[in-house]
Specification:
This protein has helices spanning 3-14, 46-52, 84-90, 112-117, 138-154, 220-225, 233-243; strands spanning 62-65, 76-78, 100-108, 127-135, 159-163, 166-176, 184-194, 197-208, 211-219. With 244 residues, the protein is α+β, with helices and mostly antiparallel strands. The longest helix has 17 residues, at 138-154.
């Protein structure tokens, strides 16, 4: 894959996702789990979230770090109110106003032998996940999950979203099978288009008590080719386990 193709794909992807997940560019359904309807569960503080958020070593085969840049709601202009929840989740932000949020980034680790065999091109086939672990009160957490499910259905034909002044078309919004273990979860597959490139992205949002985990995934090789990629469910499962 040529450097020019990689860079073009990266430029197209920047408008759709946090620059954190595309840092390598410079160098190279929703299954609604019916669980705990809630009742009153304690709202975690920022310090509490830090204790339960993933750290390096928690997910085999994945490096866990703290991102240096993310996309905030103020940087995002959804094309419509009904598509706002899925738009925020897709670009790596959060829905509504959590009382506290901590962030992590995961990246699949590359086998050095495989990288050498492929001439380094396997380094592109790495899925990066931006994780935001956010605390709400019980009612708000359940409301966010409901709004995501409603938004995914209402915006199945796509929508426009503007991030930092750059607008692009999202042409696919489809729910998929979400990982199990949380009280509720939704998985959504997206395809966005910018500069004639089709960029697959995947999102999982789960609720465990009054805490929500947002996971936005991008694979650089898929961003360059437009081909689908597999969401690393083990990342979600590891985070759910730490909250249990």
């Amino acid at each position: 894959m040529s450097r020019a193709v990689i860079r073009r794909s990266c430029v197209a992807g920047v408008a759709a996702l946090s620059l954190t997940l595309l840092a390598a560019c410079s160098d190279s359904g929703g299954s609604e789990s019916e669980g705990d309807s809630g009742g009153k569960t304690p709202t975690l503080s920022a310090a509490d979230l830090e204790k339960v958020a993933l750290k390096d070593g928690d997910v085999e085969g994945h490096k866990v770090t703290e991102p240096t840049a993310t996309v905030d709601q103020k940087d995002v202009e959804p094309g419509s109110d009904e598509c706002a929840p899925v738009a925020y989740a897709m670009v790596g932000s959060v829905v509504d106003e959590p009382s506290a949020t901590v962030q992590r980034e995961t990246a699949g680790e590359i086998d050095p032998a495989e990288a050498a065999k492929s001439g380094g091109s396997s380094g592109l086939d790495v899925t990066r996940v931006l994780l935001r672990l956010s605390a709400y009160d019980s009612a708000a957490a359940q409301s966010v999950m409901k709004s995501l499910n409603t938004s995914a259905k209402a915006c199945a034909d796509g929508f426009k979203v503007t991030v930092d002044g750059t607008t692009q078309d999202v042409t696919k919004v489809a729910t998929a099978t979400a990982p199990e273990g949380a009280d509720e979860a939704i998985a959504i597959d997206f395809v966005s288009e910018a500069e004639a490139a089709k960029i697959p992205m995947k999102v999982v949002v789960f609720r465990k008590g009054s805490t929500l985990g947002y996971f936005t995934a991008l694979n650089l090789a898929s961003a360059a080719t437009g081909k689908d990629f597999e969401f690393p469910t083990e990342v979600v499962e590891a985070q759910v386990k730490k909250l249990s």
